[in-house]
Amino acid sequence: MGCGKSNAFPYGELIWTHRKGGSTIFKFFAHRQNPLLWIYSSQVKLLDKMEFSVMSFLSNALDWVRVAFDVPFARAVVFGVHIGGHLVVEALLVIVILFLLLQKSYKLPQRPLSETEIDELCEDWVPDSLIPPLTEGIKYEPPILDSAAGPHAIINGKDVVNFASANYLGLIGHEKLHESCTAALEKYGLGSCGPRGFYGTIDVHLDCEERIAKFLGTPDSILYSYGISTMFSAIPAFCKKGDIIVADEGVHWGIQNGLYLSKSTIVYFKHNDMESLENALEKITRENKRATKLRRYIVVEAIYQNSGQIAPLNMIVKLKENYRFRVLLDESNSFGVLGDSGRGLSEHYGVPVEKIDIITAAMGYALATDGGFCTGSVRVVDHQRLSSSGYVFSASLPPYLASAAITAIDVLEENPHLVTKLKQNIALLVEGLSDVPGLSVASNPQSPIVFLRLKHTTYSFKNDLQLLEDIANLMLKEDSVFVVASKRIVKESCSFGAVRLHLTGYFLIVIAFCPAAGSSSVLQLLP
Amino acid sequence: MITIPYLTALSTYISYGLLFAFGQFRDFFRKVIDWWKNSSNLEQGYAPICLGLEDFYVRRLYLRIQDCFGRPIASAPDAWFDVVERYSTDNNKTLKRTTKLSRCLNLGSYNYLGFAAADEYCTPRVIDSLKKFSASTCSARVDGGTTRLHTELEECVANFVGKPAAMVTGMGYVTNSAILPVLMGKGSLIISDSLNHNSIVNGARGSGATIRVFLHNTPSHLEQVLREQIAEGQPRTHRPWKKIMVVVEGIYSMEGELCKLPEIIAVCKKYKAYMYLDEAHSIGAIGKTGRGVCELLGVDPADVDIMMGTFTKSFGSCGGYIAASKELIDYLKYTCPAHLYATSIPPPAAQQIISAIRVILGEDGSSRGAQKLARIRENSNFFRSELQKMGFEVLGDNDSPVMPIMLYNPGKIPAFSRECLKKNVAVVTVAFPATPLLLARARICISASHTREDLIKALEVISEVGDLVGIKYFPAEPKKQQLECRVKLD
């Protein structure tokens, strides 16, 4: 056996065959005249020699195997099974396979760092400084008030008309509020000294919650101790990982922080654009068929804090009923402002308030106190009492602010003409400001926050902001009118932690309010 | 470390197991009954607010003992206050108020220096500031919410704490949640103690940085974690970390322990990590002049990079502060969302803090501040040593005004709370999820307005109730009179 090869090498064909296990045919056609072929053929000759020695070794080994086959036991019959020689080989193969399987797979040898190496790494590591270096533009000194932030304030000894505080109904400095606050301070002291679960619930808190629920017409409500924490505690209480939230792009920081903390899937739609909202809802409903286990929410604000637009509630409610989403509405700037008696966006559009699942609001705007509340059905409110982190793990609202809130709602309910006066002031202001040279009104004409945008931008955020701040400073110095340019967090990558900011430019913010004798000072603003 | 005796652990597990089993039975029957009645739901097509077992604990365990939590009061949370009685007609699912009040001794409110009620120095000034600046400013700090009081307050706080500058926000919870995301971002590491407060956890999560936890109050484990993390770098990419920050608290409110500050600062300095100290419970309550855990443990405030605290506990007000170097505070004033978007701290609250600090430092011309500080120290040490003599298992270090008494068994929680209320002592009981499952406890907060008689009455009541409920896990020390009697007989 072994191989057969022709001896016509190197002139002619060269065929190698192996009889056992297949045949390898190597055809080599040589030509007498080609020197390259001669070199190649000499190499082949060398290989041939090696091959010959290998083959002879193999043949010897196989002879031994054949001897093993003829061993007596190889022909034995065990348990009725005729053991042929091949069974021995197969048994050996099985043993080898088992042995290989039980071996650990080859891994790169792990060499953990030694102590000295870790020491070296620790010494070499240099941390970044905690804050980036401060540039000149960062330093901004807000004007310091020497009096209450009412319609007229005192800044630097001068009496200015204050268009920068969100005092929509003019309740700052109201007599009744001061009386109730003083009484509460004398009875309860200032702070409440404990969270709501541990003796921080004072009867004024429960009274305030009942009053708010009665005013809005909802079953129940819950009080939070700070305006901005209302939204970012309420959203993670309801939305967990895996839920879907459709939110407006231009919601304020509190809501964005809440959305990030909830770890749900968030889909943004274009600011105040109902078509974009419908497309987003359609897409989500198509992609997720298992509707029963998934909670879905739409998050909008009534009057957007960053742009002054008003959300069209009637269309949102229609979409929500169509696609079965729950609506979370933030009414911070519209409570006490919209609607005939100040009950907010639902009254403004004539939508029954039961259709909105969760309403939150910060009380630091129209009601001239601090804190926030959230209302809805009993189930919604009860759930927050144990799972909303800003409610459970934080001290409760100071009792004097709760009693101030109750008095403010009483005043609002008794005097609905405050709301109409505010609307008249807003109309007057917007009309007067719409033909100011160089600035245009960028917010909804019914919104009490009036956003003025530069007609001809310099296409650079920094310069725009500088220009607007200069305008504001000039107005304060020369005309004794206090307005502010909107501030945004300007970090290099425009993302704050993991929260998106909707930068559309900078605005000059003028806040309309309803003072006792406001119209004259409003006219003063016009050039 | 709390070591729970085996028998108690067994009985606690059995109790929770029984409660769980009963809860599951009732859930099953609820499902059957609902299917039977097939009640038409307005919410067809909407997923329920809580799915499956998410609110099992609330529905089946917490609601049974709901009357022990959230008790309303009708007066200031001073040493003695009026607790409103409540009744329930549907087995504790809803509680209704009555007009009856019961005057109880307050062992639950955070009133360390006794500023909770109307104070003779503070309250008139607060009412003056209310008249001048009104109840709220209705705007953010940068938009016209900064009054003269706010700048005065920030200087006052910076001086009191011992740092160059300070910044004040309207709520302590928001301070943590809004500062940590500004300072730390992706690519940074936050190492926090395993028992840190929920606000720190939320702030750390909201920042987008990687979070690692080290064993409670164990500087050696902190060092181990730091070494590993610096050597490994960021997960998956192994790039070096941008910054590392270690977050600890001054007094841990569920354990009453002080943090081992000098050792932890030594570790941080060695590995060049930044240090963030949350002094919510310790500022104003400990230390010779009330300056917090740094003063008590002899640590220089300049060694701690950022000091944070709240005004709710010792100063009887609301709000939180951050104290650090001038550049850091300037940067935060420009970038922190609590400063840019949230309403500023109400002016009466600011005035209360300024007046309270003046009283503590003795700048009001009297020695009330020093008396209060001495009294709270005496009260805490006396109360703690008496409780330990009686055989209760009390946690916490000396000088700390927070003392948890271990209950362990879930049945003892409502028993202790209700029995104490019957005897006119109001205590706070805490269970899962604020503490680990097995380690339920009652937490006592001592105040400077408690007199010696109040404390002795409280000790009597707690001892009686402790015998009734069976929580004296340690052998009581024999009383001195018994020893004298024995000697006489001999």
What do you see in this structure?
Chain A: Pfam families: Aminotran_1_2. Chain A: Its main location: endoplasmic reticulum. Chain A: The chain crosses the membrane at residues 76-102, 505-526. Chain A: Its EC number is 2.3.1.50. The complex is a heterodimer of chains A (527) and B (490). With 527 residues, chain A is an alpha/beta fold. Helix content of chain A is 41%, strand content 14%. In chain A, helix 4 (175-188) runs antiparallel to helix 13 (399-414) and helix 6 runs parallel beside helix 7. In chain B, helix 13 runs parallel beside helix 15. Chain B has a seven-stranded mixed beta sheet with strand order 3-9-8-7-6-4-5, with helices on both faces. A three-stranded mixed beta sheet of chain B has the order 1-2-11. Chain B has a three-stranded antiparallel beta sheet with strand order 10-13-12, with helices on one face. By secondary structure, chain B is of the alpha/beta class. Chain B has helices at residues 6-37, 56-62, 122-133, 148-161, 172-183, 198-207, 219-232, 261-270, 293-297, 326-335, 337-340, 347-361, 368-390, 412-422, 452-469, 480-489, and strands spanning 80-87, 96-106, 165-169, 189-193, 210-214, 244-249, 274-278, 306-310, 320-324, 402-406, 425-426, 428-430, 441-445. Helices cover 42% and strands 14% of the residues of chain B. The chains are: A alpha/beta (527), B alpha/beta (490).
Key words describing this protein structure:
heterodimer, A: 527 residues, alpha/beta, seven-stranded mixed β-sheet, four-stranded antiparallel β-sheet, 16 helices, 20 strands, 41% helix, 14% strand, elongated, disordered N terminus, disordered C terminus, B: 490 residues, three-stranded mixed β-sheet, 13 strands, globular, Aminotransferase_I/II_large (chain B), membrane (chain B)
